[in-house]
Amino acid sequence: MRLVEVTDANRAAVTAVRVHPAQERFVASVEKSFLDAEQEPEGNPWYRAVYAADVPVGFVMLSWNVTPGPGLLGPFYLWRLLIGAEHQRHGYGTAILDEVVALLRAEGATELLTSYVPGEGTPGPFYLGYGFVPTGEVEDGEVVLRLDLSSRP
């Protein structure tokens, strides 16, 4: 698994990555992620395609080193994480987070925030299993979680 910059050459293949239809109400598409990144530059979006060999299997997007404020969690916020339906349950989600944690530690970050919409089929259990803990906050109806970067090997 490797994180790859999105370019004109791979954008269509990366945009074609889709989660399982039952997950679409919890995880926005890659195309919506690009739109969000364009419309919310104050979030300092950083994103990468996730490849296994030469095949795009997922996508990750963070707010990178932002000043927290109204509607803006940070300084480091996992804005989007998705794995294509046919590539789920192969460890890619954990591998992506491991890579992100290593990058953030190298940047001097001490925590990573994320959030999820509650409901059946939500990614909440995945995040909790990885080590995120609820902060007690709810932002726009989403449960906010925090990962202490020193808690991961």
Secondary structure topology:
Blueprint: E1 2-4, H1 11-15, H2 30-39, E2 45-52, E3 55-63, E4 77-83, H3 92-106, E5 111-116, H4 124-130, E6 133-139, E7 142-148
Parallel strand pairs: 4-5
Antiparallel strand pairs: 1-2, 2-3, 3-4, 5-7, 6-7
Compact summary:
Helix content is 24%, strand content 31%. The protein is of the alpha+beta class and 153 residues long.
Keywords:
153 residues, alpha+beta, Aminopeptidase, seven-stranded mixed beta sheet, 4 helices, 7 strands, 31% strand
Spatial gap, N to C terminus: 18 Å
Based on CA atoms alone, the radius of gyration comes out at 14 Å
Main β-sheet, in a few words? 7 strands, mixed
Helix vs. strand class: alpha+beta
Biggest sheet, spatial arrangement of strands: 1-2-3-4-5-7-6
Order of helices and strands: EHHEEEHEHEE
Under the CATH scheme, the architecture is 3-Layer(aba) Sandwich
Unreliable residue runs? none
Question: Remind me, CATH topology?
Answer: Aminopeptidase
What does this structure look like?
The chain is of the alpha+beta class. The chain has one domain (2-151): 3-Layer(aba) Sandwich (Aminopeptidase), CATH 3.40.630.30. Helices cover 24% and strands 31% of the residues. Strands 1-2-3-4-5-7-6 form a seven-stranded mixed beta sheet.
